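Record format v2
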Amino acid sequence: MSAGSRARAVAWIFFAATQTVAGAEIPLEERRSGYEFMSRDTRAMQDDDATNPGVFWVLDGEALWNRKAGAAGTACADCHGNARVSMKGVAARYPAWDAARRRPVNLEQRINMCRTERQKAAPLEHENRDLLALTAYVAHQSRGMPITIAPDKRTEPFLNAGRATFMRRQGQLNLACAQCHDERWGKKLAGTTIPQGHPTGYPLYRLEWQSLGSLQRRLRNCMIGIRAEPYPYGAMEFVELELYLMWRARGMKLETPAVRP
Amino acid sequence: MARAVVKLPSTVKRGEIVEIRTLVQHAMETGFRRTQLGEVIPRNIIRTFVCAYNGKEIFRAGLHPAIAANPLLAFTTVATESGTITFTWTGDNGFSVTESATITVE
C-alpha cells in the first residue's frame, strides 16, 4: 500500500468513525409497511379476521366502549356515539395537539384524559389490557385510511425533536434509529429483514410478545436492543418520536390490528 | 369470558371438503416462566379441543405448554349433511368455551 492510499484509508476510517448520521430520509414512493417484509403466512394471518388474534382486543375494546365507567357513570359511547362513525380517521391523525396541555398527545394519552376528566375514572396504565383494547378499537376504525399528520406550527418543534431523537446515536452500541431504518432497511439483522419502521399497525399483535402491544413498547424493545436506557412509558421523548414516525409514514394506510413476527 | 372466532363456509356442496378455522382467546401460560421476583407463574393452558358435527366428534386435539397464546387450529372435514358444528375448548382452572356454527349442504 502506498503512503498516499494508506493516508486516504486512514482518513476514510476517521471520517466513518466521526460522521454523524446523514439523515437521508426514505423517498416517499419507496416507503413500505412492515407488512411487505413479512412471510406469506404471517401476512395471511393479519389479513383474515378469523386468524388475526388482534381482533380479540378490538372486540374487547368495543365492549369497553359501551360500558359505563368512573364516578361520572358514563361510557365512551355516551359522548362519542357510534365509534364506527365518530372515531373514523381519528387514529390516523394522532399524536395530535392538545390545547390545554400545550403539547401533542398520543391516542393512549387521549383515552386516559377522557377517562380522568370526563368519566372521572382512574387512568389506565400503559400496556394495560383495557387500554390496549380501547386503543385498538379506536385505531381499528381507521383501518385502510391514510395517515394524515397535518402540518402544524404548534407541533412542529415536537416533530423536529422526534426527528432529532431518531437521527441521534445512542446506547452502548452507539446506533441511531435512522442507521437501521433509513439506511439499512431491507438488509438482514441476523435472520430477520430490517423493516423501515413505519408505525402503520399499532397497537399490533407481535408473535414474539404473544400479545398486543403499543408503539412505545416496540420503541422500548429497540432501545434495549441498542443497549440504551429506554425512556419510561408516556415520556415526552416517546410522544415526539411517535409524532415524527407518523409524519414519516404520512399517506401510508393504517392496518390496526396488524400482526408482526 | 374468553372469545372464540370460527370461520367456515355457510353453504357448501355435498361431499365437498370444508376448511374450518378456529381461534380462541387464551394466554397459554406455560408454567415454566417466573416473575421478576422468581416466583413460578402457575400453568394455565387449554388442554383439549373438540369439534363435533351434528353431535358426532370429527376432530380432537390435545394442547400442551409449548403452544402459542390464542391458539389457531385449522382442519378440514367432508360436508355430509346440513346442521350444526360445535367447538369446545377446555383447560386449566375450569376454562371452558363453546362456539357453534351452522352449515348448509346443498
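The beta strands of chain A are 96-98, 103-105, 188-189, 192-193, 204-206, 211-213, 259-260.
Chain A touches chain B through 13 residues (CB under 8 Å).
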